[in-house]
Every structure is written in structure tokens, then in C-alpha cells.
Amino acid sequence: MASGSPRQLPDGTEWHAQYLRVITFPVESHVSDDQDWWRDVTDSEPETSTRKPQSRVDSGVFEGSSLALEVSPLRVQWTLSPHLDPENLPTSFPTLGPVHQRRDRFIELMSRWLPDAPAIKRLVFAGNLVQFADTREECYQRLNQYLSHTDVDPSTSDFMYRVNRQTASGTGIPGLEVNRLCTWACVTLSFGMRVHSVPSGDARDVSIGEDQHACTIELDINTVPNSAGSELPQDRLADILVELAEFGLEIAEIGDV
Questions:
Q1: What is the pLDDT of residues 72-125, one digit of tens each?
Q2: Which end of the chain is more exposed for a tag (fewer CB within 10 A), N or C?
Q3: Is the separation of the CB atoms in 40 and 111 below 8 Å?
Q4: Minimum mean pLDDT among 27-31, 70-74, 227-231: which range?
Q5: 254 near 225, Cβ under 8 Å?
């Protein structure tokens, strides 16, 4: 992109969320059989709950999407992803829908949980966003619009751009820094299913719909860990998460600047 040339970016609503995720790193190892965080957040019971001595996974359908909670000694992870109904499969690559719409509801749910979370030393907002295009060349042209620090030739292939723009938090918490890590790429997305034959048990992959070209952003917006591993203020966790999510949306809207 030539210096000083105008950057006419697509509307931010063009970005759809493939998944959204919140990860917390507790100050101390935490796996408990008596916590019911999934139920507390959703006011319902998980459809599946797998418990092992050092891990726990609760998951189910919530408001039309799949919500999963994974707890291990080193991290607690919540993931929101598309729910796939085997009886009514989509005809194109599944997403959660426009990221603007789903992000706010997801952050609302996580803000309901954070006051009850174990003491946290690091907080992460992550996700994968996709923006569909008609051709591979159009994908790279769009990528060139978003990446102001590099030139992307539309004839390029296998291009990936990864960058971290660290910045001070605007929450007013002394010394808090934020990693704004993101990875940009152009991909061809395929959606299919594996069919098992009975009684032989043989399996084959069946494509559903046509391949789709897309720009993608993998977001990893996280608080910078310090050497002391000190605890983030419990009463400000929701504020920090909102800021991390805002940074992610800003990257999607204006690109790498």
C-alpha cells in the first residue's frame, strides 16, 4: 500500500466470529468438584460434564450456540462456538454471526462469572474472526487495506502476518499493560462431515456446500504477566475484560495501525 493512500475499509459488521474465548490463569491451581460455574452463568445445567482428578469440562447449548467451560490446574477457559445440529446442518461455513452482536453478550456472561472466579494473575480475550470474499485475490486486496505497515500483493499465497502492539491499559490500574496480539491471514474454508458406514465402520469425508474464501484475524488480547505473578484486582476484572474485548474490536475495525 503506497504511503498516504486512502484506506477504505469494509464495514466492521463484515467480520463474523468463528469462536470467542475468555481464558483466566489463576494465581493458584484450581480444580474443584463442587463449583457449578456453567450453571451459575447460564441458569441451566450443562448437557455434558466430564470430571477427572485434574480437569473438568462442562458444555451445552446456550442461546443457540455451544458454550464450553474447561477447568485445569493452570487455566480456566470459556469458549463460545457455533452449535451444529446433525439434523439440520448449515450449507456454508458456520459462524456465530457478526462479532459486534455476539461479543457483547459473551462479555456480559463472563462479567457475571468473574466476581466468583478464583484469584487471577492473567486474563485473555481471544477469538477467530472471518470476513468472506468471492475470490482469493479479493481476500488479499482486503488484507492489504487492513495492514498499513506492509504491502500485500493480490497474487500472494500462503501469507501470514503476526504482530503484537503492546499498550498501557486505560483502566487506571497502576502498571497494567496489555498485549494486542493478532494474526492476519487469507484462507479457503471448507465445511464437511465424516460419515461412518455400518456395519463395516469405514469412514469417509463428505463436503457440505462450496469452499469459501475469507480473511481471518486470530485475536489474543491479554494482560502482560509480571515476574511476581501478582493478582489482578478482583473488583476490576470485568472492566479489564471489557477493555480487552474493545481492543479486539478496534483491530477488526481499523486494522493494524
A1: 989 999 999 999 877 776 667 889 999 988 999 999 999 999 998 889 999 999
A2: C
A3: no
A4: 227-231
A5: no
Q: 38: domain range?
A: 13-254
Residue 5 located in a structural domain: no
Give strand pairing partners of 65: 62, 82
| Tens digit of each residue's pLDDT (9 = 90 or more) over 152-209 | 888 777 889 999 999 999 999 999 999 999 999 998 877 655 555 556 666 655 555 5
Q: Residue holding cell 499498550?
A: 167
Split into its structural domains, the chain has a count of 1
Asked if residue 65 belongs to a domain, the reply is yes
Task: Check residue 229 and give its pLDDT.
Answer: 59
Residue 77, in any domain of the structure = yes
pLDDT at 4: 45
Three-state SS letters, the chain: CCCCCCCCCCCHHHCEEEEEEEEEEECCCCCCCCCCHHHHHHCCCCCEEEEECCEEEEEEEECCEEEEEEECCCCEEEEEEECCCCCCCCCCCCCCCEHHHHHHHHHHHHHHHHHHCCCEEEEEEEEEEEEEECCHHHHHHHHHHHECCCCCCCCCCCCEEEEECCEECCCCCCCCEEEEEEEEEEEEECCEEEEECCCCCCEEEEECCCCEEEEEEEEEEEECCCCCCCCCCHHHHHHHHHHHHHHHHHHHHHCEC
CA 251 to CA 197: how far, in whole Å? 45
For residue 178, is it within any domain?
yes
